[in-house]
Amino acid sequence: MTTLPAAKKPSELVVRSANVPKLSDYREYKPYLRRDFLHSCAYCTMSEAEALAIRFTIDHYEPQRARSDLVNDYGNLMYCCNECNIRKGDRTPPADARAKGIKFFRPDTDFFEDHFTLNGIRLDPASPAGDYSIHALDLNRAMLRKLRDLRQREKLAREAVAAGVRALRGVSIDRLPKSIRGRAAVAMAQAEKAASDLAREIEDLLCEHAGSPLIDLPEEPDEQKARTQRLKDLQAMIPGAWRARDA
């Protein structure tokens, strides 16, 4: 099997399994990709559960037309939502651009924080790779901003529930009067169960809210123009073929 260059340091997002068999058809790798990529898109991090009506596909990091030798190489395959896959298409920055760090982020060799910063619900670039990935894949499209907002609200809700549970657990029953210790223990157990139920209800509510509003949100015209112009500017600065050609 042809292998890609080893990572300089381990990735924080994806660790590829070492026991993946060599297969002759890249489509047969899908179960392994789903597991290794934690059922999430390599580029926008959307999970299958969050994607709902959006299907997931297999992306060739190096496009098939550019690197036919890597078509069935597991190391070149990414688990990818269809939205990101369509935007990525056969884009492949030329060698001069890659020498300047302009490439697609890949979660199996790159650290997220090296290339992106989260500014509220928007991603800002922290590197040339982050900048190119954000604009080429439209990683600030409306549905992803909505998803980040939901994730942040869910995180805050979980933290609030956890803080309440920790406070309850910090109360010493032995310090209470003997006459109420039994009732206090029962009440605290009921409160912990209620907190756990509340966490599940919050998660269910957010999942329900994450249904159709995440899909079919149009991209703002100004955002689209700015993103397209940024890609044109990058390509103008570094001449070369930015789309894959037959190898």
Q: How are the SSEs ordered, and which strands pair?
A:
Elements: H1 30-36, H2 48-51, E1 56-60, E2 77-81, H3 82-88, H4 95-99, H5 112-115, E3 116-119, E4 122-125, H6 128-137, H7 142-169, H8 178-209, H9 221-237
Antiparallel strand pairs: 1-2, 3-4
Q: How big is the Rg?
A: 23 Å
**Secondary-structure element pattern, one letter each:** HHEEHHHEEHHHH
Shape: elongated
If you average the pLDDT, what whole number results? 81
As a percent range, the share of strand residues is 5-15%
Largest sheet: 2 strands, antiparallel
Distance between the termini: 18 Å
Number of distinct helices: 9
Helix content: 40-55%
Total beta-strand segments: 4
Estimated structural class: mainly alpha
Strand order of the largest sheet: 1-2
Low-confidence stretches: 1-8, 209-216
